[in-house]
Amino acid sequence: MINLVLFGPPGAGKGTQAILLAKTFNLVHLSTGDLLRHEIAEKTDLGRLAAELIDKGELVPDEVVISMIESRLKKPRSTVGFIFDGFPRTVAQAQALDRLLTKHHSKVSVMLCLAVDKPELINRLLKRGLTSGRCDDLEAATIEHRIDVYNEKTAPIINYYESQGKYYPIQGLGSIEEISENLKQAVMRMSSKPISTLNQ
Ligand code: UDP
Ligand code: MG
Fold first, then answer.
1. Nearest residue CA, atom 15 of ligand 1?
2. Is residue 93 within a helix (H) or strand (E), and if so which, with residue range?
3. CA of 148 to the centre of ligand 1 (A)
């Protein structure tokens, strides 16, 4: 199986690139942000809890997102693997993901980290806020807080994967096509196998 963790700060382009990578490698795209927004739209109890935290730019508790991922991994389906977008967001979540994948006789293949500087992230998110309908994209203060939370709680995950030889940084500035091509090359290089055998 190929299991990709697509990593990076808010606004780095994870969602856009995850969709393209999922197509290229035939992977199931799992975005915990999208799953949480779905819960919010459906007005579930979980959605109400999530909305409160998301609007403030805080993280939803580990156990909540871990169990969302656990139920998606349990679902029987024929896939060559998954692409995790916006998850894990803490080292505890990264450890939980390893445990869950081990149960399924699988593992994380590579962590691809999109690098974008802070002023560009803020620009992109404010621009997205004009059309996304997302409260957390509207104000510079909330966006800055999300970036601070990323630096404090999420960025330490880099060391976690680096120590396993799975960390792969990618320049996140450039055209969507260019970045997508670089990500694709990185997946193939990290697996050091030709694409035809990657799907086995
Ligand atoms: N979120 C979270 N845990 C997750 C995914 C999302 O707490 O696993 C929350 C968090 O408040 C985050 C927001 O949902 O700021 C939006 O997440 P998403 O990944 O969609 O945003 P992005 O970082 O891609 O802009
Ligand atoms: Mg996203």
1. 57
2. helix 91-103
3. 13
DSSP-based three-state secondary structure for 117? coil
H or E element: which one contains 144? helix 140-149
Query: What is the pTM (predicted TM-score) of this model?
Result: 0.93
* Cα angle 198, 178, 166; round to 5: 45
C-beta of 88 in contact with ligand 1 (< 6 A): no
**In the chain, which stretches have pLDDT less than 70?**
192-200
Compute φ and ψ for 169, nearest 5 degrees: -75, 145
111: CA distance to ligand 1 center in Å? 17
Report the separation in Å between the CA atom of 29 and the middle of ligand 2, taken as the mean of its atom positions.
12
Nearest CA to ligand 1 atom 6: 33
13 lines ligand 1 (CB under 6 A): no
Rounded Cα distance between 29 and 27, Å, is: 6
- Give the CA angle between residues 66, 13, 54 to the nearest 5°: 45
Tens digit of each residue's pLDDT (9 = 90 or more) over 34-91: 999 999 999 999 999 999 999 999 999 999 999 999 999 999 888 899 999 999 999 9
β partners of residue 28: 82
CB 178 within 8 A of CB 125: no
Measuring CA to CA, which residue among 146, 196, 197 is closest to residue 11?
Answer: 146
CB atoms near residue 75 (< 10 Å): 8
